[in-house]
Specification:
- Two copies of one chain form a homodimer.
- Chain A starts with 7 loop residues before the first strand and ends with a helix.
- Chain A is of the alpha/beta class and 340 residues long.
- In chain A, helix 2 runs antiparallel to helix 10.
- The first copy, chain A, has an eight-stranded parallel barrel, surrounded by seven helices.
- Chain A has two domains: 260 residues, Aldolase class I (TIM Barrel, Alpha-Beta Barrel), CATH 3.20.20; 64 residues, Helicase, Ruva Protein, domain 3 (Orthogonal Bundle).
- Chains A, B: Pfam families: DmpG_comm, HMGL-like.
């Protein structure tokens, strides 16, 4: 197979992986990962609380180490790699983005629910004013038809975003759906297009290939899949697969495998398997970061996690509605008590 | 998406999983898995030593419990599910197949290297004479061009095979390659077509979808991916994905998740992650069951596993040549000693 387009890999181990780590990354872990990613030539990697800048809180989980300290540490180790930060309007504020830029971030990814791009206007504008490369990150992309995705991406473009992402937060998209969505963005929006996968249906690599074949220029991955739910597209495997497919990523395969196995595998609290609950998140289409909360609520109220996830899917619950999980668990427990 | 064709799932947890278990399945484990698969309505599942009937040996690893005893136990628990056995000419003999049929097997899968179907003639004929549903299983399918695959499949057909499998033993195939191979078999061979994946490149689900879309009627999976290398297509996830894609498998999703999580997850010795070495097997294209031997040899001789795997790939090493692994490791160690 001949050489195809260049694609740009962005590693989210130090941001999406924060969920799996219960936000307890140490500075040493961040330095070691950042050094490895830099050495492997990964062009971008993200460092933030799992729920974005300012996410350290009672609701989302407190960070063990302040993310600004982690960004600065990563910047010292990262060599030629650029550092991105995630920011969700409503969680991260103006000051967080200014501080992140000062700490060494050069890209901001402003994330909203698939139907809510308009809450991102100020953040996008601020990011551009700070001189950051600016991304609109449309989460839970499976929850709206492609026409809505295009309309929302156009809003991001109008605010000044340079790249717009299809973000499969729930790991619920099928490859033909990814193709359709990415192709529609390439045809209708002037921004570059990115794709962010979760592996809840064992489709993260399939979907990432589908995205690239449909024209995506940016693709996200995480080392050893470290991320919410069943994790992300496995960065080091993606480098191998795109090499086999004839795409140019610029990532060194031996070095990227080394940081995955010698660094990340050693501190991961548990493997990123597809368990019954993460599978069900993809199948029912609910938010990946709900996983740990759902398991806890299921155990606390003695109900089946899958019942909780199916109901959350039907309710189209979104990030920020973590309180719903406990309500749903209580409701199922009550119904079961009545039925007995 | 409307209802598409019916596809037939075959679970290999109790055969390919034998590699990951170092062939130490207990009778209780086999009964529990068999009962769960039967309850979930999985139409076929396989029970044999990882290297097929008669594989229990010094070279391939001794089984903890005799496979005939395990087949009989599985048959007692399996309900309406049918039991298949794997047999490799040169390892399994005439008597093994007769005994397996007597113990309750109703399908035999006769496996050869992609270029060696002609060694399977007697086994295929015997299987038909025993009244077993008979499959030709072409391993290491990435090692020969599609024209050779078709020619070898036609041999299987001429011997009496009813189904022929494209078997990606090394987890090295890419989705477009799977499509091409399966489509060529559907167009040129009268047998039904099956596909068996390994997840070394995180493509098992992508490849399984590609196979079905190209016309495959049988697809293999294993619970929690339990199998050689990074394991197989995850059975319970496959059931969910094909449901979402509109194919009919007849498998109950809650029940199949239960046996995966409540039974298999509890006895797995380690998660089926994609490690550096299993990734490299897929990338270099070497035999999945080489994994543990390669790790042992790398450790023993103090060399990089990946160097061993790349050389084995270049040598086109095949199953049965496990001795080569140690030779290659020694050779690399010697070269490194000279270089120092």
């Amino acid at each position: 197979m001949g050489m195809k387009n260049k694609i740009t890999m962005l590693d989210v181990t130090l941001r999406d992986g924060s969920h799996s780590m219960r936000h307890a990354f140490t500075e040493q872990q961040v330095r070691d990962v950042a050094r490895g990613l830099g050495k492997a030539g990964v062009p971008y990697f993200e460092v933030s609380h799992g729920d974005g800048l300012g996410g350290s809180s009672l609701q989302y989980g407190f960070s063990k180490v302040d993310e600004l300290k982690l960004i600065a540490a990563a910047r010292e180790e990262a060599g030629d790699s650029k550092i991105s930060v995630l920011i969700l309007p409503g969680i991260g504020i103006h000051e967080d983005l200014v501080n992140a830029a000062n700490a060494g971030a050069s890209m901001a990814r402003v994330a909203t629910h698939i139907t809510e791009a308009d809450v991102a206007k100020q953040h996008i504008e601020l990011s551009r004013n700070l001189g950051l490369e600016t991304v609109g990150f449309l989460m839970m992309a499976h929850m709206a038809p492609t026409s809505v995705l295009v309309e929302q991406a156009k809003k991001f473009e109008s605010y000044g975003a340079e790249i717009v992402y299809v973000t499969d937060s729930a790991g619920a998209l099928l490859p033909h759906e990814v193709s359709e969505k990415v192709r529609a963005l390439r045809e209708n929006v002037g921004c570059k297009v990115g794709f962010h996968a979760h592996n809840n249906l064992s489709l993260s690599m399939a979907n990432t290939i589908a995205a690239v074949e449909a024209g995506a220029q940016f693709v996200d991955g995480s080392l050893r899949c470290l991320g919410a739910g069943s994790g992300n597209t496995q960065t080091e495997v993606m480098a191998a697969v795109f090499d086999r497919l004839g795409y140019k990523t610029g990532v060194d395969l031996f070095n990227i495998i080394d940081v995955a196995n010698d660094v990340v595998a050693k501190f991961m609290p548990r493997p990123q398997e597809i368990t019954g609950s993460s599978l069900f998140m993809g199948y029912a289409g609910v938010y990946s970061s709900f996983l740990l909360f759902t398991q806890e609520a299921a155990e606390r109220y003695g109900v089946d996690e899958r019942e909780i996830l199916i109901r959350l899917g039907k309710m189209k619950a979104v990030g920020g509605q973590e309180d719903l999980i406990v309500e749903v668990a209580q409701q199922i427990a009550n119904e079961q008590a009545v039925a007995k």
